Amino acid sequence: MKKQLFALLFALVPLAAMAAPAPDAPYSMTPDIRDQESLQRGMQLYTNYCLGCHTLEHQRFARAAEDLGMPQDLVEENLIFSSDLAFNDQMHNAMEAGDAENWFGAAAPDLTLHSRLRGPDWIYSYLLSFYKDPSRPTGVNNAVFEMVAMPNVLEPLQGVQEMVCAESDRPIGDAELDPLTGKYQSCEVLQVTRPGAMEPDEFEEAVYDLTNFLTYVGEPSKLQAQTLAPKVLFFIFIFGVLAYLLKREYWRDIH
Fold first, then answer.
1. pTM for the full model?
2. How many CB atoms lie within 10 A of CB 41?
């Protein structure tokens, strides 16, 4: 019995490790890969704002369309912008790695498995943490990933965000706690100083959808596994009952 218990504990260790949040992520989110509408919006955002630089080498348009319940004609018309790509192709782009390195200082990485490498909290925090920095070549920096080479491609939606001195409910950088107000006084608070096309709440929801989509892309089979799991458990339960009754029948004459 002890051996079985230890085996169960060891089996649960990887699950606990995967659930651990990123230590440097100031914001958190709970992915829901069963939320089809969120995933559809996330895919739309990705193809419009991210796919120009970041590929999804291990994901096909057709697989995403099937999992997310999107018709082929709508995907081809609205989400595939290159004439060199077809519905069954992987989610590539036309950017050469050498050109990206010359333009941004480093080639844009493929993001298929990024959610499994960094975690959803990190991606969510990263996308929310761009701020204006005239000293950088792209004019922006990132509070989660300092000296980042990537421009803020979502700025038209979010607007211009800057570091300001303000009170915050969470410790940021070298923020000090004011015992009278219970707030953290910091000059590293991110604040939108020039609005974009979306309100802050709308933008956070959009970033959630985008992060949710990247979480799905990191392990698309998980969506099918969650759908299949109740059926498997039901089968195991029925089989267990039948096996127990069969065992009683075999051993009835012996006992």
1. 0.77
2. 19
| Helix (H/G/I), strand (E/B), else coil: 244 | helix
Strands 184-195 and 90-91 turn out to be unpaired
DSSP state of 111: -
Distances 137 to 53, 132, 148 between C-alpha atoms, Å: 17, 11, 10
Token look-up 């193809």 returns 47
Residue spans per domain, the chain:
31-236
User: In whole angstroms, what is the distance from residue 252 CA to residue 255 CA?
Assistant: 6
Q: Which of 157, 159, 161, 137 has the alpha carbon at shortest distance from 149? A: 137
Tokens of 237: 């339960």
CA distance 97 to 53: 9
Nearest CA to 68 out of 114, 116, 33, 30 is that of 33
The string of pLDDT tens digits covering residues 106-119 is: 788 999 999 999 99
Ranges 201-205, 207-211, 236-240: which has the least confidence: 236-240
Angstrom CA distances, 212 to 32, 112, 123, 196, 228, stand at 7, 13, 10, 22, 21
Q: By C-alpha distance, which of 142, 76, 116, 144 is closest to 211?
A: 116
Question: 168: buried, middle or exposed (CB in 10 Å: 19+, 13-18, 0-12)?
Answer: middle
Q: CB within 8 A of 142, min separation 6: which ones?
A: 126, 129, 130, 131, 148, 150
Q: Which residue has the tokens 């990705």?
A: 46
Distance CA 103, CA 137 (A): 10
Task: Report the alpha-carbon distance of residue 205 to residue 207 in Å, rounded.
Answer: 5
With H, G, I as helix, E, B as strand and everything else as coil, classify residue 193.
strand
Which numeric CATH code is attached to 31-236?
1.10.760.10
pLDDT of amino acid 248: 85
